[in-house]
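sorry for the late reply, my laptop died twice this morning and i had to redo everyting from scratch. anyway the thing you sent over, i finally got around to it. pasting the sequence first so we're on the same page, its 373 residues, then the predicted structure underneath. double check i copied it right bc i was rushing
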Amino acid sequence: MKFVDEAFIEVYAGDGGSGAASFRREKFIPRGGPDGGDGGRGGSIYLVADRNINTLVDYRFLRIFRAKRGENGRGSDRYGRGGDDMVLRVPVGTVVSDADTGEALADLAHHEARAIVAKGGRGGWGNLHYKSSTNRAPRQFQPGEKGEARRLHLELKVLADVGLLGMPNAGKSTLIRAVSAAQPKVADYPFTTLAPSLGVVRIDMDKSFVMADIPGLIEGAAEGAGLGHQFLRHLQRTRLLLHVIDLAPLDPETDPAQEARAIVEELRRYNETLYQKPRWLVLNKIDMIDEEERDARIVDFVRAFGWTEPVYAVSALTGNGCAALVQAVSRWLDEHPAEALLPEVEDNEPVVLTPTPIDAPRAPSKIKQGESS
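ok and here's the structure:
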């Protein structure tokens, strides 16, 4: 299935039902008084994160969602039925924003995290609520409130502890195949990876971490060269970036240090927070360099690149150095636990996006005059 990580949808909450203006009419009971019931509330629309869903592909074909409206109130103190809520399930890691204003609404980073994206309208009061000692035959009633409507932008950011970054054909897919059970496509031409892939790197029976492989970047990605920046969003949740570098390029005129600087510059141009994330260098394809000159090649690269952070030389093809890299990453992750992506909430407690509470008082200006039944 083609990886789908972005979608635009429209959500329309249900309108509230109108209240009724009615009077009790029974034999031998003159002047029975008002008995108009309230209208039912309109259905709200929720987004719920579901770990059993991997993509947003369903929302590419079905884009408009409408919740049911509430029923109108009726006489004999009968209240209208509320509209059923609508629940839309999305992958864990979905970020929801208003497509028109760009305002961030919710980050569904945990299984069963919930967010109200469109609240149903309140049901109107019937004339039963307006009786008093001075108004014994009220004809006022309230119309139901309109439900909220929004155009939403859904964006999936995969959840991973470690992200792989580098040029096409740097060996990122081969590396994730070597250290996990993931099987991304590997070939001898650029851009074999067209969609992000995740691999679980298992250290022992009770310890593991998740590694993400994204399509390679090239210089000029900010202007749309190659696949552009569209997949860098999937590295924003990672705690550590591994910058994979081809230390033995096929073209002898290629300068690995220059390519590495180009990748770092594209990272900086995309997002300053992502640029500031902890980043290690992984010098790949050392099996293609003679052992006599291997150390000198590594030292020359580090000096030319001006790097002072951790450096690991590996061969993803043969597995040489991969175990040491994985163990070092695991230790670093243990020392730097993940920060909470969402505030702690009770199970099934919704994250309310709009400042207006559901139980807001009705506005008197909406009262209308109605005819008695």
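The radius of gyration is 30 Å.
thats about all i looked at so far, will dig more tmrw
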